Amino acid sequence: MKFLLVFDFDHTIVDENSDTWIVKCAPKNKLPNGLRNSYQPGHWTEYMGRVFVYLGDNGVKEDEMKRTMTTIPFTAGMIDLLGFIGGNKEFFDCIIVSDSNTVFIDWILKAADFHKVFDEVFTNPAAFSSTGYLTVQNFHAHHCAKCPKNLCKRKVLKEFLDKQLERGVSYTQIVYIGDGGNDLCPVMFLKKDDIAMARQGYTLEKKISQLAQDLCPVECSVLVWSSATEIMSYLKVLIKE
Q1: Which backbone phi and psi does 201 adopt, to 5 degrees?
Q2: Catalytic residue list contains 10
Q3: With contact defined as beta carbons under 8 Å apart, do 144 and 188 qualify?
Q4: Which of 19, 48, 118, 150 is deepest in the core (most CB within 10 A)?
Q5: Residue 217: what pLDDT?
Q6: Number of domains within the chain
Q7: pLDDT over 80 (residue 241)
Q8: Is 99 annotated as a binding residue?
Q9: Do you know which PANTHER family this protein is assigned to (predicted)?
């Protein structure tokens, strides 16, 4: 009996978008209009690359970025939930699939001592260059028309499950916890015994509702949450069954 927990990061584990939180490091806490307006749909990673160049050009160093990122608030109930999962790892494998980046997620999880809760983190690779600028790359290439070009979360989840099967690991149930539009693609991959936990009032919940109205509902069960304590209550029942 092993369960796979799949977490999104921004607006799910943390209550903000880590990529926009870093703007607090910019002069006057904002980006110039030209830079802000340079974002093109589906090309967020390239946009963030330009943001990091701007921060570097303005003398923002790694330690200042790290200090800023580790003040990002966790979502309500999330600290308790991650503590609970960490104490019950014999039941749960736990991964993050996120459109953030390795540097931000690593800083935030380590500062709160949650890095051991997660078995793997799948996100855009980031690193500081020799000149001290943060750089970020696309996670992978894929052919999914529904997803941003740098990351298809369904592909990540499918490849992870295939790799686990090769190791002889299969899961009783997958619990997918997320909020965003890019979480719909992996949710549509889930089977009827799995469960999608969509954050209340966010894009994922709205898209799942729309599919139900269009009479093509997702195959898995859906549970809407506003505090991570609701997720914890569900998991407690799961491991008692």
Answers
A1: 85, 0
A2: yes
A3: no
A4: 48
A5: 85
A6: 2
A7: no
A8: yes
A9: PHOSPHATASE, ORPHAN 1, 2, PYRIDOXAL PHOSPHATE PHOSPHATASE PHOSPHO2
